[in-house]
Design brief:
Chains A, B: It holds the Pfam family Acetyltransf_1. Chains A, B: This is L-amino acid N-acyltransferase YncA. Two copies of one chain form a homodimer. Chain A contains four helices and seven strands. With about 170 residues, chain A is α+β, with helices and mostly antiparallel strands. Chain A has a single domain, classed as Gcn5-related N-acetyltransferase (GNAT) (Aminopeptidase). The first copy, chain A, has a seven-stranded mixed β-sheet. The longest helix of chain A is centred in the middle third of the chain and has 15 residues. At the A-B interface, strand 5, strand 6 and strand 7 of A face strand 5, strand 6 and strand 7 of B.
Chain lengths: ~170, ~170
């Protein structure tokens, strides 16, 4: 399994599981029913961010997007999002993508990584991020309409990074 | 002083203080140096949200934008942002705009209002939102580069609203 920066040609391969995950509606507050072209800017991140793909035997089985959480005066904090094809779960692909993002954010001199909306019932994700050092900052109660569990909370999670080499980033 | 829904023609009047506030860089993690047209989609909110203006003697002295904080499964929580022309400050215009947004969110059956990035040194704003019932959920340390105070925190603030009339909003 290899993680590499995506190209525009990778998008249809990512979209296969993007579409399934958004239609299931258990983990992302994203629009449903998007076409291939409507969804593209929601996942394919422009510079200074990037989107990467996890490739196994030539097939895209996961993806992460990463970049500044905010523009301007908030651009030294990164954020990221993750998607895994169903058969890639429980195989360490999420962990590898998480580690990749942390290393990328360090190299780009971000001061920390913030997740803005981790669905509290997505325990696999919450535990994975905690095991990589993220803490739950707080939870907005009932902020997510889960298709089977009703209104559940959204966690903010945060990982501070070691002091950057460039204070002016 | 009157608060009303904005029209496209109001944007140049809002942009006058939008530009000053973003250039000062003390309260918003927005891009700097935007042109009138670049900045327009950053402030003029499409439906189901809206942008309103506070008008005094025919002059726009403040503005607020409001809408769903997230699409899809998170669209029942609102968010909002506020701008005041310098001479409108300490005159209750911010409080009137805040009350307007809360009333709008109630009528639209939102379950709560979330502010994602209140600069902790912007004490007038923090105190105003607290006086209107918002609580600081948590603070991301050092997430905002203040032009004179260095790295300061960003508060998440939240106001739960009474149970909505429509549970399916």
């Amino acid at each position: 399994m290899q993680i590499r920066t995506s190209t525009a040609e990778d998008w249809p391969g990512i979209f296969g599981f993007y579409q399934k995950i958004m239609d299931e509606g258990q983990t992302y507050a994203f629009p449903k029913g998007q076409s291939l072209e409507e969804a593209r800017p929601w996942w394919m991140e422009p510079p200074p961010g990037q989107t990467v793909v996890a490739v196994d035997n030539g097939r895209i089985i996961g993806s992460a997007k990463m970049g500044p959480n905010k523009p301007g005066a908030g651009s030294h904090i990164a954020t990221a999002s993750f998607l895994l094809d169903r058969e890639a779960r429980s195989r360490g692909v999420g962990r590898s993508l998480g580690r990749y993002v942390i290393e990328w954010a360090r190299q780009e001199n971000y001061h920390g990584i913030q997740f803005n909306a981790v669905v509290e019932t997505n325990e696999a994700a919450v535990h994975l991020w905690q095991s990589l050092g993220f803490a739950i900052l707080d939870t907005v109660p009932g902020a997510f309409r889960h298709p089977t569990k009703g209104l559940v909370g959204l966690h903010f999670m945060f990982l501070p990074l070691e002091s950057a080499t460039s204070p002016e980033h």
